[in-house]
Amino acid sequence: MSPDDRLAAQFAFLNEADRLKSVLRATTLCDGSRAENSGEHSWHLALYALTLADQAEPGVDINRVIRMLLLHDLVEIDVGDVPIHSMGGTAHASTATQEAESRAADRIFGLLPPDLARDFRALWDEFEAAQTPDARFAKSLDRVQPVMANLQSGGGTWITYNVTLDQLDTRVGEKISRGAPRLWDWVRAQARHFFA
Fold first, then answer.
1. What local confidence, expressed as pLDDT, does residue 47 receive?
2. Do residues 52 and 33 touch, judged by C-beta distance below 8 A?
3. How far apart are alpha carbons 154 and 21 in whole angstroms?
4. Looking at the DSSP assignment, which residues form a beta bridge with residue 35?
C-alpha cells in the first residue's frame, strides 16, 4: 500500500466514524435535555477511564481501555443503539444483534489499512468478549456511565423501560462488578435511593 493509499484509507475510516455522532442512544445527557449520541458516549467513556483508573484491577492498562472505549460502539453506525433494558433486556445479547455487529465491525474496520484494521478489530473483539482485565474494566465503565446519566436525569431510561433494582443488578451490576467491584458497590448504593 502506497503512503497516499494508506492516508486515503485512514481518512475513509475517520470520515465513516463521524457518522457515529448521528446515532442517538436511549440514554439522555445527565441534564435530561436530549438523547446522547454514540460519539458523545464513547468520548465520555474515555474520560471515565482516565478519571476512574484507580478503580481498575492491578495491571489494567488504561491506555488500552481507552482505545477499546473509543472503538467499541463504531458498529452502531450500521446496527444502531440497542438499549440493554429494551425488550426485557434480551435484545442486547441476541445472536442476531451479535452477528449484525460482527458484520458491521468487518465493514468499518475493513476501511483501514490492514495493520490498523487487524489491531482495531482485535481490540473490538477483546472488548466484546470481556475476558481480559482490560476488557472487563472497559465493559464495566460502559455499564456505569448510563447508570450515572439515569441517576442525574431523574430516572431516564429506567422509567421508559420500567426497570427495577433487581433488573439493574442482573443486567448491569454483574458486568460492572466483574471489572470494578468497588465502583459497583458505590453506584448501586446511589441507585438504591432512586428505587426506594
1. 98
2. no
3. 24
4. 28
**Per-residue cell: 162:** 420500567
Domain residue limits, the chain: 3-195
Topology annotation, domain 3-195: Hypothetical protein af1432 (1.10.3210)
Contact 78, 100 (CB under 8 A): yes
CA-to-CA distance for 141 and 45, rounded, in angstroms?
7
Please give the Cα distance from 112 to 168 (Å, whole number): 37
Q: What burial class does residue 31 get, using C-beta atoms within 10 Å of its C-beta: 0-12 exposed, 13-18 middle, 19+ buried?
A: exposed
User: What is the distance between the alpha carbons of residues 143 and 122, in angstroms, rounded to a whole number?
Assistant: 21
pLDDT exceeds 90 at position 93: no
In whole angstroms, what is the distance from residue 57 CA to residue 145 CA? 18
Looking at the chain, which runs of residues are DSSP E strands?
24-28, 35-37
Q: What is the pLDDT of residues 151-166, one digit of tens each?
A: 999 988 898 889 999 9
